[in-house]
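Q: Give me the 3D complex with adenosine-5'-triphosphate.
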Amino acid sequence: MAVDTRATGSTVNGQSQRPAMPSTVEELRSWGKGDSSLPAIDVKNLKVYYDSEAGTVKAVDDVSFTLQQGERLALVGESGCGKTTLGMALMKLTKPPGYIDGGEILLDGRDLVPLNDEEMRLARLAEIALVTQSAMNALNPVMRIEDQIFDGLIDHGIKDSKGNLRNHVYDLLQRVGLRESVGRMYPHELSGGMKQRVAIATGTSMNPKVIVADEPTSALDVVVQRQVMMTLSRVQRDTGAAVILIGHDMGLVAQFADRIGVMYAGKLVDIGTVEQIIEDPKHPYTKLLINSVPDLEEKRERLTGIPGIPPPLVDLPSGCVFAPRCPSVEDPCRVLAPANTDVGDNRHVMCHLFDLYVTMAGSEVG
Ligand SMILES: Nc1ncnc2c1ncn2[C@@H]1O[C@H](COP(=O)(O)OP(=O)(O)OP(=O)(O)O)[C@@H](O)[C@H]1O
Ligand code: SF4
Ligand SMILES: [Mg+2]
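A: Here is the predicted complex, encoded as structure tokens.
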């Protein structure tokens, strides 16, 4: 007997009452809109490593954060700090030699880490969706746009008339600022910006609770970048999904996000509201990142770079990973790793300037 592994509304792992997966367009419209009091996503002590000849690459090392329903979090940090690895792990798309070494990814209360491939296939798109810079290149060149979106819906158990499916696709296209006629086009007939809007329409076609957007605009020119970000913003508002936006450009992500998480060498070293991070950067790395953002009003002659380079993730320094580059480093920083400290107002900082080390130093460090 075939087993329907779709969520059925029962309690899963004793953690949450999940509504049954939708099977018609009508049901899809209200899917994901339940007023769950749980966070949209709660990541606990997540570790994602790669095996390499040089050793274990700790690309995501004990990362924890919580995102409330409908919240927008931007993840920033220098190249290679683990942002994409984290985003892919949230989708359970980590490929060998990468693997999830531990931790939990609670999506609306259900841990994704132990789910099998089929359960995860259904959760993707319907509960958590990914939009990447290469999403536009992932479109099938010989299929019309609407047929590609239909396929995703049908794969997730939507059984409805062609007319209803088509109306749903037209609504999705309209939401991302595209005309209905785009549904009947092939990918080669679309500009880069239009393809990325199609990728956002596809990613949100099942009303997921969480959207992971990994540099969705970095392949586009500046004007189109802003338009696509505005589209993502509108879609987020309409769907109420929580969004994790991964990006390099602090200025661009700050305009979009409610909160900013700063990653360094596989760790989430600072997380707070946009205002907290921009107006009151606490972690020394965050301060340097903010200083390196071009300020057009001040017309700085030279941009302030961040001296030094991040450490290799196979050979992290003992103590604080930022110690070799930190202007505030003290001797104890080189031997004792800072804890993730709640400094109030749901702001978390990983630095000895803010953790209990100050009071522990006498006993812990000689
Ligand atoms: N398949 C792999 N095997 C070994 N190491 C890998 C693999 N993929 C990524 N890494 C390493 O994991 C670390 C994190 O990479 P990741 O792509 O997540 O960084 P990122 O923050 O997204 O960078 P960028 O801003 O350039 O996109 C890097 O040091 C990278 O070299
Ligand atoms: S723990 Fe020490 S080295 Fe690390 S960021 Fe804080 S002050 Fe700098
Ligand atoms: Mg990346």
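A quick observation: The first strand starts at residue 11 and ends at 12.
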